[in-house]
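Reminder to self: tokens first, then the designed residues, so the page reads top to bottom the way the pipeline ran.
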């Protein structure tokens, strides 16, 4: 029986040699390889070696070597078709149909590889030529020099509609083959198929064996409908089962380089350029179960390093839910959390190998990130909320199919909950020190002093002493977090600022649920026609009346209490909106930074609890020092107050 080469390649890709061999030979790790006693000769010193990267085994005592099919044929006396059938079953693959149609399909696959290889070469030529100057300038601006461009076979697709089609046609490639390869757009209403990729930097996508199977294209035009565009699904390309840079990462991971998962093509290339060659990326979609299986064939615990923004955090959380049913001993994930606003490309370019190494050293295990996801920025002040959290952890653990791991995760979260609930879970004025609370014996206190700084992760982000001690935030007048109250008061007094800062307002997290709800109502109001009508004073009155009728009277009273004795002129409707906007801009910036630091502080405390090393203690102190210094930033702004007749004013 004749088997298509692509089918044999798929079996070898799914079954590492060591996995097949260990059924007959006891293997031990030996550097980059595995070693064991020869299955063909009696010996005391191991001379049998397995190299998963090379997909081969070597028996020096018997003078034999081969692949997984050869091993079964040598050790079990199977014929080649029998070995293929047995290994296909282990790999979960159905045997291919033997028919003229199947042979034609295999021939077409081979032809598609050739078409895509020609397209990749054409794109490379265009990048290096006169038409590729803008693309080369863009890549150089992203820190990718000509050597890197060549190593990753980067290219450029010309803006013309038929440039690639005509170039391949001149090489004898028929249009139907280009369509099958995903290179042309076609359809019933399209008389002449045309190039799918135009005026784009081209990133070739390879299979595990290094053959080009698709492309990703990054638009150069700022007004392009899609910034990134991938090839469509084809006979060769199924994006949920492919990892960008997989073929290079396999060898690097085998050689001991940490396996890292990032989000984008340029992130991969930037990380590889500073020495982390075992970096891969999903192809514009959430990490899939099939991609996880590919990762675990390369490393037991790959590190997910997604962008430090809301989308990146969501991507990490989606990966958790996807991976939970699949994890087990030797199959997990860890997470390197970037600071807000950064991505792996930024980190690699700005800090080089050392910065990436430091980030990887702080990677959090899966259990820690689950804990952070379920507890950060949340207050468990009531028995109902605590019961809800406990039930939630029970639901999460039920997704873990491995019985032993299920039991350990259950015990882990059960042990953490008493320590969490031993803290003072109620909202209080952060300017008033906590004077005592019941806690379980042996648990950590709710706050501690390290380096002279008091920290409490259940509290909202810190504000400056200047702002906290002002009449606006006099202790006892409100339980709304100080800076959140300031932001809301500015919006209520100057409704025009809502539209100007709507994206920033929508993105920031409020620790107070009632403050967050009022923020959402103000944004909704600003989108209505009524929000911009009338004089400034009328607009403020209209806005207040609208949200009051929506049930926000209680929180408005709290805000009134905060401002009752304040002399903060920029909260008055008659103050210039430009000056009030400066206050709001600074408040939003400080709020984002403070919350980011508190997240880092939580991670640092977790790390210190696990390993009380000098490095972890130093990291904790550094974050605390940054939080302390943050309070001194609310100071004079150059030119602040000029438009309101108050030059040199300050917060």
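Designed residues (651 positions):
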């Amino acid at each position: 029986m004749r088997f298509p080469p692509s089918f044999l390649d798929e079996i070898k890709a799914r079954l590492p040699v060591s996995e097949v061999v260990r059924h007959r030979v006891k293997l031990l790790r030996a550097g980059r390889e595995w070693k064991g006693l020869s299955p063909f000769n009696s010996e005391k010193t191991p001379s049998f070696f397995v190299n998963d990267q090379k997909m081969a085994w070597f028996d020096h005592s018997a003078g034999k070597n081969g692949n997984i099919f050869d091993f079964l044929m040598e050790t079990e006396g199977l014929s080649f078709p029998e070995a293929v059938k047995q290994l296909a079953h282990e790999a979960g693959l159905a045997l291919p149909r033997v028919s003229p149609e199947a042979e034609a399909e295999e021939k077409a696959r081979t032809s598609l590889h050739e078409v895509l290889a020609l397209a990749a070469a054409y794109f490379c030529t265009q990048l290096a030529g006169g038409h590729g100057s803008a693309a080369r300038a863009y890549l150089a601006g992203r820190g990718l020099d000509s050597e890197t461009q060549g190593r990753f076979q980067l290219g450029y697709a010309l803006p013309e509609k038929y440039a690639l089609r005509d170039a391949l046609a001149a090489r004898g490639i028929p249009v139907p083959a280009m369509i099958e390869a995903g290179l042309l757009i076609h359809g019933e209403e399209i008389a002449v198929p045309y190039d799918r990729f135009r005026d784009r930097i081209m990133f070739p996508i390879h299979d595990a064996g290094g053959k080009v199977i698709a492309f990703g294209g990054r638009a150069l035009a700022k007004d392009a409908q899609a910034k990134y565009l991938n090839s469509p699904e084809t006979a060769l390309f199924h994006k949920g089962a492919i990892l960008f840079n997989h073929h290079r990462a396999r060898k690097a991971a085998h050689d001991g380089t940490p396996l890292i998962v990032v989000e984008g093509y340029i992130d991969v290339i930037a990380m590889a350029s500073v020495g982390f060659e075992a970096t891969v990326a999903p192809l514009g979609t959430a990490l899939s179960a099939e991609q996880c299986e590919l990762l675990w064939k390369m490393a037991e615990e790959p590190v997910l390093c997604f962008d430090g923004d809301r989308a990146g955090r969501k991507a990490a959380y989606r990966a958790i839910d996807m991976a939970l049913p699949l994890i087990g001993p030797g199959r997990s994930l860890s997470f390197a959390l970037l600071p807000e606003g950064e991505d792996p490309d930024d980190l690699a370019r700005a800090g080089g190998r050392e910065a990436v190494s430091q980030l990887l050293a702080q990677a959090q295990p899966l259990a820690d990130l689950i804990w952070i996801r379920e507890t950060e920025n949340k207050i468990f002040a009531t028995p109902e909320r605590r019961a809800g959290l406990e039930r939630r952890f029970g639901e999460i653990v039920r997704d873990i199919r491995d019985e032993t791991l299920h039991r350990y995760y259950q015990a882990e979260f059960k042990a953490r909950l008493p320590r969490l609930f031993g803290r003072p879970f109620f909202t209080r004025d952060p300017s008033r020190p906590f004077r005592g609370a019941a806690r379980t014996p042996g648990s950590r206190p709710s706050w501690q002093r390290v380096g002279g700084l008091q920290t409490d992760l259940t509290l909202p982000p810190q504000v400056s002493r200047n702002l906290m001690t002002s009449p606006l935030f006099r202790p006892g007048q409100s339980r709304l977090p100080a800076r959140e109250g300031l932001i809301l008061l500015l919006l209520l007094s100057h409704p025009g600022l809502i539209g100007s800062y709507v994206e920033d307002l929508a993105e920031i997290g409020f620790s107070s649920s009632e403050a967050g709800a009022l923020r959402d109502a103000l944004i909704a109001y600003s989108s209505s026609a009524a929000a911009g009508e009338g004089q400034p004073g009328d607009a403020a009155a209209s806005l207040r009346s609208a949200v009051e009728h929506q049930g926000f009277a209680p929180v408005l009273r709290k805000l009134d209490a905060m401002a009752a004795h304040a002399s903060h002129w920029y909260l008055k409707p008659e103050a210039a909106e430009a000056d009030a906007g400066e206050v709001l801009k600074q408040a939003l910036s400080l709020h984002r930074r403070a919350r980011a630091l508190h997240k880092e502080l939580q991670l640092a405390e977790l790390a210190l609890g696990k390993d009380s090393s000098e490095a972890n203690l130093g990291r904790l102190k550094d974050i605390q020092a940054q939080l302390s210094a943050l309070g001194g930033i609310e100071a004079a702004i150059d030119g602040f107050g000029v438009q309101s007749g108050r030059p040199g004013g300050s917060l």
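The domain at 245-377 is CATH 3.40.1360.10 (Dna Topoisomerase Vi A Subunit; Chain: A, domain 2).
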